[in-house]
Inverse folding.
């Protein structure tokens, strides 16, 4: 998938790497979970090539000052993510 960068307020996110989007009402944050990528490397103990799943930033959070802002940005980024998934299916 080609990267699709979403810009919203003070944050940006690559929609092609998003696995899930959630919101936390208590802390007024949007939580992004990102996909892992597979790399192959040689295990030094067995000298066999193995797949290793790597994710530099598995979770990222974006805090907001109010619940209204949280809901507005959450709704907006979810719509953008769904449109991206539909276009790149």
């Amino acid at each position: 998938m080609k990267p699709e960068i979403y810009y919203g307020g003070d944050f940006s996110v690559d929609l092609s790497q998003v696995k899930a989007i959630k919101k936390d009402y208590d802390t007024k944050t949007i939580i992004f979970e990102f996909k892992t990528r597979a790399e192959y490397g040689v295990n030094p103990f067995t000298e066999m090539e193995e797949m290793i799943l790597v994710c530099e930033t598995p979770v990222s959070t974006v805090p907001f000052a109010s619940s209204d802002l949280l809901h507005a940005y959450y709704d907006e980024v979810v719509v953008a993510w769904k449109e991206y998934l539909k276009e790149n299916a």
